[in-house]
Structures are given as C-alpha cells and as structure tokens.
Amino acid sequence: MKISIVVPVYNESESLPHLIERLHQALDGQAFQWEVVLADDGSSDGSAEVLERMAAQDEAHVRAVLFRRNYGQTAAMAAGIEHAVGDVIVLMDADLQNDPADIPMLLEKLDEGYDVVSGWRKDRQDSLFLRTLPSRIANRLIGRVTGVVLHDYGCSLKAYKREIIKGFTLYGEMHRFIPAYARAVGARIAEVPVRHHARKYGKTKYGLGRTVRVILDLMTVRFLTGFASKPMHYLGRPGLISLALAAVALCCAFVIPFVLNAKAAFWPLLAVSVFLAGMGFQAIALGLVAELLMRTYHESQGKTPYTIKRRINVDKPDEVAALAE
Questions:
Q1: Start-end of H helices in the chain
Q2: Res. 324 pLDDT band, cuts 50 70 90
Q3: What's the order of all strands across the beta sheet hosting 2-9?
Q4: How far apart are CA 218 and CA 177, in angstroms?
C-alpha cells in the first residue's frame, strides 16, 4: 500500500523543512510506502524555491506542484489530490499545527472499515474568540445542514480512501465539506482526536472574513448532496407552495370584500395572488431547466447517478463493450 500526503502551501517557507523532517520521523519504517505532494498556491516568500530544493534532495518522497498565482486553498488541495498516486490520501496543513505523528493512527482507523477518518482538534491551540468559537458554531451549522455531524470540519488532517476522494471535483472553499460529499456517495466516516500545536512560523491565513464564503458554499453543498440528481424536488416544492398560497389569496380577494364588506382589500389581495403565482411558475420553470442541465451534465460526461463499492462476478461496462466487439 502507498500513502499520499497532500499539503497545500502558501507562504510557509520556514515551516516546510521541519514538515518534511517530521514526516520522515513519523512514516519511515512503517509497513507502507509514502509520498508527500506539496501544492504551492502562488507563494511570495520563497516557498516555491524551498519546494524545488527539497524535491531535488528527496526524490523518493517529495513531489511538488507550483501554481502560477494564488488560487486558494481548495484549488491547491485539488491539484495535490489530482497528482497523488497513493491508495490512501491524507490531507494536512503545512504550518505544523497538524502533527504528522498522528497519520499512522488515522490509517489504523481506516483499516477498521471506514472510508474517511477526520481529525478532531480536541485541545485546540488557537484564539478562542477569533478562531475556536466561530469554528464551533460553524461545525454545528454544517452538521445540521449536511446531516454529517463532526466536531471539527475545519481540521485539515483527514485520511481518505482513494476511490472516495477521487469521485468529485472541488471548487471555491469546498475542501472543508469533503466529508459531506463523501457521505453523499455512501462513505463510512469516523472522527478521532488529534494533536494540535500552536503556530511557530509565518502568519495564519484564516480569519472571520471566510465566514460569508463558508455560508454560501454550505448552501451549494446542501443542494449538490441532496438534490443534484433531482433539482425539481428542490425547486418544485416551493413553487407548488407558492401556487397554493396564490390560490388562497385569490379566493380571499373575491370572498372577503363581499362577505365582510371590505372592498378595499380586493386589489391588495389580488396583487399578492398574482405575485405568488408568478413566483410559483418561475420556481417550477427553473426546476425544469435544472433537470435538463442535470441530465446534460451526467450524459455528456458519462457520469452515473450512483456509485459502486465493488463488483462481484460482474465486468465493468467498458470491458463488456470490448468483449462484444
């Protein structure tokens, strides 16, 4: 078995040599091969040069992907995952707050039959009000919306089986929601406490400014994991409710003025009815458009609305086609 450790890098030139040293200390002598894929996200502090030097000195373990400019942490993770060749892919940060010595523990948990093992920074070494408290609130919100309850979505230290994490593409700030995507394809998820160290080198790249982006991405994740293959269910339901309310308002527009002798209420109720009916028809029409886009997306790329864990005495479709020819 081979393990790939994927590390996004942005202005971490001081910590990188120590990171590689600790990876060797933690993983050399283990019963598996390992590599580390470091994706430099357009660093401006010389991190790219450090990566080039380390890759030349340790060709057996160190791989590097260098961006032309800064694209964001999720893009760096996606690039690292794309270039990783391991049977298991471990994600972690480059700032040494994650401890490489915890990686074997994550792998042992995977061996128990789990597909994803997420780290939990139980004793977190960060500011309470600027980092820890907002993170706890976000974790509860994400767990409630996605249905995947974890103590620490923000912990980068996670281990994934290759077939799970290669099954989707990451955009925006979506890296923190990978467990939710994994659960959507039937993955078994476990969470284990991991060590967390105070930052020694460089400056943190996180702040409260990410909160808005996280909320917007959470809405996207909820739609993609729950309704990507049935968008009409997502958009048609409020459309029907709006149409029903429009019908009620229209009835009231004719009944109330004459029964209660309140003729002044006719035009406002009629306007509300027309507005609700318009909203309802628009929602249903948008749902139909989304259905067409969903079918185009799946059929144009040969994607299926399901995932297969394993095949027993069944050939893959492409193999069957080859035999038929």
A1: 16-27, 47-57, 73-83, 103-110, 133-146, 162-165, 178-184, 210-227, 231-259, 266-300, 317-324
A2: very low
A3: 62-66, 33-40, 2-9, 88-91, 158-161, 116-120, 189-193
A4: 8
Class of domain 2-226: alpha beta
- Between the CA atoms of 24, 29, 32 and 38, what dihedral angle is there, to the nearest 10 degrees? 0
Calpha distance 170→77 (Å, rounded): 8
Q: What's the angle, vertex CA 189, arms to CA 98 and CA 235, rounded to 5?
A: 110
- CA distance readout (Å), 53 to 16, 37, 49: 11, 14, 6
CA distance 270 to 225: 38
Read off the pLDDT of residues 100-141 as tens digits, 9 standing for 90 and up: 999 999 999 999 999 999 999 888 876 666 667 777 888 888
Phi, psi for 35 (deg, rounded to 5): -140, 155
Domain ranges of the chain: 2-226, 231-300
Q: Do the Cβ atoms of 41 and 72 come closer than 8 Å?
A: yes
Three-class SS of residue 135?
helix
Mean pLDDT of 265-282: 89
Global pTM reads 0.76
Interatomic CA distance for residues 164 and 186, integer angstroms:
9
The CA-based angle 67-219-38, given to 5 degrees, is: 20
Q: Enter the DSSP assignment of 102.
A: G
